Known about the structure:
The structure is a single chain. This protein is an alpha/beta fold. The chain has a single domain, classed as Alpha-Beta Complex (Spore Coat Polysaccharide Biosynthesis Protein SpsA, Chain A), CATH 3.90.550. It is about 30% helix and about 15% strand. It has 7 helices and 9 strands. The strands form 2 sheets. The protein has a 7-stranded mixed beta sheet with strand order 2-1-3-7-5-8-6, with helices on both faces. Strands 4-9 form a two-stranded antiparallel sheet. β1, α1 and β2 form a beta-alpha-beta unit. The longest helix has 20 residues. The radius of gyration is 18 Å and the shape is globular.
Amino acid sequence: MNKDQLLTDDKIYVINMKSNFERYNNMKKNLYNISINDWNLYQAIDGKKLTFNDCKHIVDFETFNNSKKDYRLSNSMHCLGSIGCFLSHYNIWKILAENDFGKNWYMIMEDDIEFPSHFSFKVEKYIKDLDFGNNPNVGYLSIGEIGSGSHQFGFPKNLEMKELKKFKLKYSKGKQVDLDSIDGSIILNARFTGASCYIISKLFAKQLIKTLEFHRANLQLDWWLSFLRTEEYPIFHAELPIVNLSELHKKSDILHTPVK
């Protein structure tokens, strides 16, 4: 391991359902292909097994009860799997915020993504440019989804950033993007979807945990984060994704677990 390498294995957490060996093996292979070998495995929370006591620190009883009925409101906690997914991420935030004194940020991944060959180089450039983990104006960087906003470079005044070349791409349904051929801008406080791959600072993890102490979540994780985005919650996303969702994304065993 290069001592100057920022994206070290011990800062990477992969969320995987214990019973899903196909996703685990696929993720292990994909990470190996980009020279990431000794990452941390976090066993995903199985939403079907949750009781209210298991998750009352992140949702209220009404949200929990509705999720048991597969009660769908737009982007809500529409099933227990959504709560289990949220709780899996939350528990990793807790590790970073309270237990891992040697780290000031983590990269968190779900197990249904694929990487371009330049992944590590690109991520390390973002970390350096944003001074991630040290700059309090940068708390969260989503790098796995396409942002639905386009508020270009709305950075805090004291944050300097070199603009990256932008490419206008057309995304057609079911078509994968050649991620080795593109670059992308970083955008602050524009709406995004998904939480398949992101970097979170220790300070921001503490902030999210504190927020949930006073205001329980009633939206699935990515929409909850997206609606938090204000100057108080410095959430960035890559306008063009660094990772792709794999074909295994269509066979989710984390989210689609309603109780009948």
